[in-house]
Write a structure and sequence with these properties.
Blueprint (H helix, E strand, L loop, with lengths): L12 H7 L10 H16 L4 E6 L2 E5 L11 H16 L5 E3 L3 H10 L5 E3 L5 H5 L12 H9 L5 H5 L3 H8 L2 H9 L15 E12 L2 H21 L2 E12 L4 E11 L2 H15 L6 E13 H7 L5 H17 L10
Helix pairs in contact: 2-10, 8-9, 10-11
Amino acid sequence: EARAFGVRSAMPTATALRLCPHLVVVRGRYGDYTKYSNKLYQRIVELAPLVERASIDEMYFDLTGCEVLYNNDLPGFIKRLQKIVWDDFHLPCTISLASNKVTAKIAAQTVKPAGVIYVPHGTESEFLAPLPVDAIPGVGKKTGEVLRRKGFHLVSDLQKTPREKLVRILGKHGIWIHEVANGFGPDELSTEHERKSIGNEETFAKDIGDKNELEKIVFSLTEEVCSSLRYRHLKGRTFTLKLRYSDFQTITRATTIEPTDDDSIVFKTIKEMLATSYTRHLPLRLLGVRASHLVEEEQLELHLFPADQKRTNMLDAVDKIRKKFGDDVIHVGRQ
């Protein structure tokens, strides 16, 4: 409904409210999104031998060798999988089945939202031919304009063109465009992923200059980051504070401490950075907290820093209570 007024993804909330004054603004719950993403991932791992997480709400899985397991009907299986996701998580999803990742990604875009599509092996070029050139990942606004000026409007136009001509027009990027247009793409999954950081940030509906209010927001962001660390059995060494002023100047400050996932320790660190970094007489439009230089909890406890078991048990109990009754029902003390 909001899109009809010009509201778009990643738009500043203040801009959205100017376009649609009766907009209902609901604060994001990134911690919840992460929990659902992890649960969904674990469920898919039970059904497919190889799973690659592309983002918090997108993944690829390889069903090679699973044909007999799913009655030699993989198209029928993905329809059942869509129902499994709805029954288990009450989440709509779009699923595509194709011979490679890029064709699958393009196909999924054609049946969103909540669609299911199968592109049989050998029919990739035929399926892609009538789509606009912008359907190809990597063809953004500028590349699309260049291609259309040269007379390329549909993928079929690219398919009829020698690769060398596209290379002359687009450079090395033309090789990728030609390959994808003809139905080729990577078909191996990357299942190893080392998480480099965990963070959360909030863009305010109205700019905020009250330091007490800003501290409350930082505390909430810190809780979500630390909860995510504990969920993954990780601890952070470096913690970063991000501030964006009302004139869009953005600054970041980072501090490295002993590895931790403790709300109160991290909040003390972030609070000190906020006090020394928020120096301009302008309100803020965004705050963010991020943990990086992550290490596995088990490795630390074995080799570096013995865990405070009593404190660890308390934090685990807090996480369980939040999971059952909601994030706002209990907090770790700020001091």
